[in-house]
Structures are given as C-alpha cells and as structure tokens.
Specification:
binds zinc ion, 480 residues, RNA binding, Serine Threonine Protein Phosphatase 5, Tetratricopeptide repeat, DYW domain-containing protein, single chain
Length: 480
Amino acid sequence: MGLKPNEVTVIPVISTCAGVRELDVGKYIHGIAVKLGMLLEVKVVNALINLYGKCGYLEAACCLFEGMPVQSLVSWNSIIAVHVQMGLVEKGVGYFIMMRRAGVNCDQATLVSLLLACENLGFRKLAEAVHCYILNCGLDKNLTIATALLDLYAKLGILSDSCKVFSEMINPDAVAWTAMLASYAMHGRGREAMEHFELLIREGVVPDHVTFTHLLSACSHSGLVEEGESYFKIMYEVYGVEPRVEHYSCVVDLLGRSGLLNDAYKLIKRMPVEPNSGVWGALIGACRVRGNIELGKEVAEQLFALDPSDSRNYIMLSNIYSAAGQWRDASKVRALMKQRSLIRNPGCSYIEHGNKIHRFVMGDQSHPDTEQIYNKLEELIRKNREAGFTSKTEYVLHDVDREVKEDLINKHSEKLAIAFGLLVVNAGMPLIITKNLRICGDCHGFAKLVSLIEKRRIIIRDTKRFHHFSNGLCSCGDYW
Ligand SMILES: [Zn+2]
Ligand SMILES: [Zn+2]
C-alpha cells in the first residue's frame, strides 16, 4: 500500500493503452505522470507520443514532442512514425528534414518510416534523396533497409532500381529474396519471377506461403496458366506449404484469365478454407472480362453477403450488365447502391514533376496549367479518334446521354495526368502515374493508343498492379 508508480511501471501501461486505443485510461496515466514529474523522462514522453498518435490525437503528440527540452533520436522516430502511420506523410517528412537540420543522425527505424512515407507519397525524388543519405551513412549494407529500398523502388514503378539494389546485396536473406520476387510479380514479369524462384531454391532459401503467393500472383499477372497450376501443385507436395486463401485467389485469377470460369468456380466450391472477398473478387473480375452475366450475378451475391457496404462490388456487377447492353439491370444495381447510401470513392491520379506531386481528380480544373492540359487532352482525344478509338462509355455510372458520358469519361483523372505528363516530362522519359482505384477500360485503351501515337512509355500503378504501356500494348495483356 502507498507505493507510488514510477517510469518502469507506467511505460508498459501507456503502451498497452496505445495498443488497444484506450485513450481515457492513457490520459489518466498522463495526468499521474505529470503530477509525479515523470515528463522529464524521455521514454515516458515517447510512450505518450505513441499513445496520442495511435489514438489520432496528433496535436497532443506534437505538443508533447515540442515541449521536450531535448528531442532524442528514439522521440524523433516516434513523431515521424506517428505521422506516417496516420497517413500524414508530408508532415512526417517535414519532421525528418527538421531532424537532419538539428544534426540528429537517423537509425534504421527512422529510415524505414521514411521509406514508407516515400511509398505512400509516391515521391521518387524524395526516395532518391533518402537513398543518397543511406549510401552516405553506409547503411546500404543493412539488409532491412536495403530490402525496404528494393520494395520502394518497385512500388514507385522503377523495377530496374529494385534489381540493382538486390544485386548489390551481400547474402540476401529470405525476406529480401521474397521482396524481389514480389517486385517482379507486381510488374507482371512472370518469366523473371520464375527464374528468380529457381535461383532462390538453388541458393538454399526455403520458400514459405508468402513466396508462393508472389510466385502465383506473378504467373497470374503474366498469364502463365500451366506454370501457375504446376507451382500450386508442388507448393504442398514438394515444399509442404499448405495452400491458404490467398493462393486460391491467385489460382482462381489464373483460371479466369484462360476462360476456365467453371473450373475456377468448382475450385472455390471445394476449397478447404472459407473463400473470402479476394477469391470471389478474382472470379467476378473474370466474369466481367469474359462477359459471363449468369455467373457474375451469382458471384456478386456472394460478395454482397460478405461485405454489403463495398461499393466496388456493385460497380463491378453494374459494369458486367452494361458491357452486355443490359442497361435496365445495370441501373437497378446502381439504384440499390444509392438506396444503401454507398458512395463510390472519387478516383484520383498522381504524377511527380519538379519536386512536387501533381494530383488530378475527374474534370479537375484546379491545376495552374489547366488550359494547356485540356488543350493537350483534346489533341490526344482527336488523334485517338482518328486512329479509330471509340470511348467505352459503359464505364460511366450515370444515367445520361452518350455525349455527356463521353465528356465525363474524357475527363477521367488518368487522362488529365497523361496530358500533363506529356507537357512536362522530358521526351524519352516514361510517364509514371499512380491511380487510387482500378484503372477503367476506357482509360486503359486510351493509354495504349497514346503510348503508340506519342511514342512514349506510360506506367500506371493502380490498386491491383502496374500497367506498362508501350507501342500500343499493355504488359497486362488487357486483363486486370
Ligand atoms: Zn477512366
Ligand atoms: Zn494494362
């Protein structure tokens, strides 16, 4: 009785509160810590910064940070990580710059936070600057950091840099090998992924379920059906890796790609694990591409049952109906969506230029160069039309006339980013664009033709994969 809490006892309590987002108890402990004069202890303050950050009280976290007499490395790390995790990456990066100015050197934790920030921002210039810093400090030999870099470059669309980072690693571990495999997979480089896998086995790395997820996904992204099926077979028979739901999802995608929709459906039915929305989502995607309305409807029912609030499923079913010309059914699905108050996420596309990320939404007119962008877009649309491209207006979810639909689809964010990119990115350099949703079929066709007409490589990263457009073709083979 009468024992007073000290730093050793309060820190784990604060960390537990942060873990379960128990803000009220955390605040109470904060009060005790103030009363007992514990805020001079850096570790206590760091734990509190983490607590407020995790509970979304960034102002309180920043206040504590700025009130510290001396900011230690462990506290700089906390404040950067808290911002990055909350998606406020620009602020996180701002703190990194302040930290460097204050003469504090980074450690592994800060650098990994920062590389994550570069990834979320899609900022290549910043990634290169952080890479330079890593080289200067000699931290490039650190496997965790090098793997984060490799992964980052792949996600920024620069696969060649990922390969370079990997080739410079001394004794890469299983995580690094798998990260390289994942990079090939997301870029649809199935053959390279298979070669990499063979090499990984020869080097004595033991493949696990993550390795096989990326290998199967590489096969499905590249249309390597037979190869994928054979890997799916040997993963358990040779390597003893029990197939999980994500592996089934890749195989369903593979079968769907080759038009074997019924086989895919049968596979789902005999899965020993409960199929999730990833598995059904792979099949509904195949139904859209193959125009199979009957199966599409059935799969949509499963998806609605799993997650009635996911607007993507309604859009997918509506697209299946529209593509088959069943407008009435398509509008029924959209009415249902409206009735359930589901809102479609607004699409937006990003492109980096001149130390800045330029963001576009549909019909955006906020860019300072908006007039030139629209002039360029009009020129591209005219050239595309002359080359025989017609707008796929079924991708517009509005009950309006065709002309209005064309106008809406022609202002999709990807098209604006492409027009802007062509104006500002040096000739010979590819345009690298990030899209927050899956690219629509119309923009996909548009990008293919622009890559041919303008003789320019265009790389678009959407939520599912990378599309590399060149000479009128896309690396996804029009299946995504
Ligand atoms: Zn589009
Ligand atoms: Zn594509």
